[in-house]
Amino acid sequence: MDVLSQHLARQAAELGGALGVLPELVADDPAQWSRAAELAHEPYEGLLALVNETADRWNAPPHVAAALLWKTYGYWHTLPMALGWALNRRVPLMGFADTLVRPSAEGLTIAAAKVTVAVLPDDPLAGAPGTVVVCDLAAAIRDALIDGQRPVIRALGALARIGERTLWGSTAEALARPILSLRSYDEAAALLDRIGPPVAGLLTPDGDGYRRRTCCLWVALPDTDPCVTCCVRR
Fold first, then answer.
1. How many Å is the maximal CA-CA distance in the chain?
2. What is the spatial distance between Cα 77 and Cα 220, in angstroms, rounded to a whole number?
3. How does DSSP assign 60-119, residue by residue?
4. Letter string b/e over residues 62-76, b meaning 16 or more CB atoms within 10 A of that residue's CB
5. CB count, 10 Å around CB of 193?
6. SS3 state at 57
7. Average pLDDT per 10 consecutive residues for the chain, totaling 234 residues
8. Distances (CA, A) of 87 to 4, 12, 37, 92, 183
9. pTM of the full structure
């Protein structure tokens, strides 16, 4: 994962350290983190605390806070997969049981107790320790999204009555946006189509980029403008 970690480290330096995922992905002190899987267990106390913190930060009602929290969580969880695919077709997978979270200045930061890297059969690293050989990286990403994101999305829906499609729209954007920094929108769109549900069809082309078909609800906050990719922009 050296290429990806170096890329993430450069991003962190450019942002003054404000990156919501560890550049090396794997935490060296897992005991100092919370397990993401705990957020999806009733009565959702840890998740509710994060929603409430987001609501206080942005003066947002619960459903908007849940959507904004997911926009943060989903983006940082998705970013390594999107960049790994775009950089060298090596996709890091954080199993849900191994995904770690902790509050931070970015809202929260994501890491993992361990990571497996999905590679294609013709990759020189195929079969190396820590890799899993797959015939379809899009399918591997889809499985990772279902495993690692759907439980939290459903828990947020139960807590705040926010629709799954709204939240998956943020994941679709979290896949496309990093890829556009390295490749064309056509490539990002083709990947989303190959991944299929739950993220296919949630973005639409717009110039050299895209527009969302769902809203992250940022625009519902007082005195804010729509995001440049928002479906409500005219």
1. 53
2. 24
3. --HHHHHHHHHHHHHHHHHHHHHHHHHHHS-EEE--GGGEEEEEETTEEEEEES--EEEE
4. bbbbbbbbbbbbbbb
5. 12
6. helix
7. 92 84 94 94 94 94 96 96 97 97 88 97 96 98 98 97 96 97 95 98 93 93 88 74
8. 7, 17, 29, 12, 9
9. 0.95
